[in-house]
Amino acid sequence: MHYLLTYPHGCVEQTTSRAFPQLYLGSLVDMTDQEEERARQNVDAAITRLMQMQISSGGFGYWPGSNTSSDWGSSYAGHFLLEAEREGYDIPSGFKDRWIRYQKQAAASFEMPNQKNLRNLGLAQAYRLYTLALAGKPEVGSMNRLNSTEEISPRAKWMLASAYAQMGQKQEAEKLIAGLSTQVEEYRELDYTYGSSLRDRALILMTYTDLGNTTKSLELTKVIAKRLNTTRWLSTQEVSFSLMAISRYQKSVGGADALQVEYEVGAQKGSISGGKGMYVVKLTDPEKAGDIQIKNNSGGAVFVNVIRRGVPEVSEEISESNNLIMKVSYLDADGYPLDVSSLKQGSDFIAEVTVNNPGHLDHYQNLVLSQVFPSGWEIRNQRIEGMEGQFASDEPDYQDIRDDRVYSYFNLRRNAVKTFRIKLNAAYLGKFYLPATSCEAMYSEDIYAREKGQWVEVVSGDELAQ
Q1: Which band of pLDDT confidence, cut at 50, 70 and 90, is reported for residue 389?
Q2: Which helix (H) or strand (E) holds 377?
């Protein structure tokens, strides 16, 4: 949850992923009144943002201002809205009705492609049909038509079975998944459904929970929880679906066995008791914690994790890359290379980043270029001023310009190159740290490039002359 809540990007998938698990978090972990209120505020904020991302068709665009709907994103966001409404959140009826009309039209017009490499379209249709069943507006004809399609993938069958279960047709759902393996081949998808083997296991867990199969649900919950407990990189889609599926399972079977634990961490002592599955104790003085002593007075096993978080010391970042080439440079107002370690106050200059897909893999979707600038520099509003001539920049699919940073989102075909330029001004005197510049695929850990940061100065004209 910490990873989701601090994630800086906000497409329709990421906005939904940050908020979705918070609907059920109280069934898993003991929360203070303040934490519960913060969760409610986060969910309300996500609903408001999604309202701004709904387009005229009733679907949801991938980014604010998009003219086309995101297929998977529209179902995912709508799923979240339906579950939020079930949990007591206020969803404007017109907002939801427009989305339901879009889902029904998309479901009715769906045709399964012949190409096997497009089989995820079947999963998208199954998810769409599931959300309609959840909304109490099932498209039975479309469900039966997809059910009879030979090309439908196993993951689509699991999702479609959940749709039948929502309608109360559990026998048809059981028939659909009979003989299907819960093993999922390892894969990772950079766009469309943002899928992975972990996300698909969470989908299967949702199906078993909908069918009331607690034995299979428990087996998958253990597998997913073990995967979440590793240090490997996870996408927002994986974390959100996993937490959502585990929380829904936990809620369906009731509280955990009563927990009775005493702990001592240095001078900090306390006890935990209750029926939630997870408890968090914040160390008041972690630097002086010393030994940690745990006494388990419960009837079952208790698992303890000690978690430490931090950020690298300034200037300790390293430059590295994998399957992506990035060059960071700076230009003066005439387009000549510029050393930014010492800049004259008031001078304008350009931050230039060139990103190259070397073709080792395939086309790249959903890359993000993150540029954070020192507090002595100001970002010039290029949306008003524009970038022309030799300073013209490639157009990102979406760009988020904040006070001290710019996030640029784009796709990059195999062997293609794109260059992005940001106009800056050396505004304030002093010595500042320029953080690392990075570019990465938002849905893969295997595609990234990072350029380490450095110290920079903004000086007066007199100092520069000396």
Answers
A1: low
A2: strand 377-379
